[in-house]
Task: inverse folding
């Protein structure tokens, strides 16, 4: 009976160890499936040819409020936007607290406005239509 008890114990131990490894593998597989999409800030270096927004600056993500596919980020010194090209004669304009600040210019990868942003609410408009919006 002693040999039978040892073999039974080894089989049970093997099943426990196998179960632990199987559970770990299932958990790791689930974690690999939950991939979060990159944030606008993470996309900027690719979109704007290596441009990096400093981590120590005040910034806000500009979210699309028009139903289009645009995205952007605003700091206290600039507004960057990944937007489709407007029609000929139209342009994107930056507003801060509903006051016009200036026109965005085309840069490699998107649109840029450089200027002091003093206010809370930042909007990017195309004509009268608000495309992007965010608040500090």
Result:
């Amino acid at each position: 009976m002693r040999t039978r008890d040892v073999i039974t114990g080894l089989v049970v131990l093997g099943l426990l160890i196998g179960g632990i490894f199987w559970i770990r593998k299932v958990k790791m597989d689930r974690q690999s499936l939950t991939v979060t999409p990159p944030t606008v800030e993470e996309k900027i270096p690719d979109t704007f040819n290596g441009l990096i927004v400093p981590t120590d600056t005040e910034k806000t993500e500009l979210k699309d409020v028009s139903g289009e596919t645009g995205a952007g980020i605003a700091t206290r010194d600039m507004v960057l936007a990944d937007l489709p090209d407007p029609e000929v004669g139209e342009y994107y304009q930056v507003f801060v607290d509903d006051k016009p600040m200036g026109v965005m210019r085309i840069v490699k990868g998107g649109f840029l406005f450089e200027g002091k942003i003093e206010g809370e609410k930042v909007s990017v408009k195309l004509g009268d239509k608000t495309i992007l919006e965010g608040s500090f």
Q: What stands out?
A: Residues 2-33 form the longest helix (32 residues). The first strand starts at residue 59 and ends at 64.
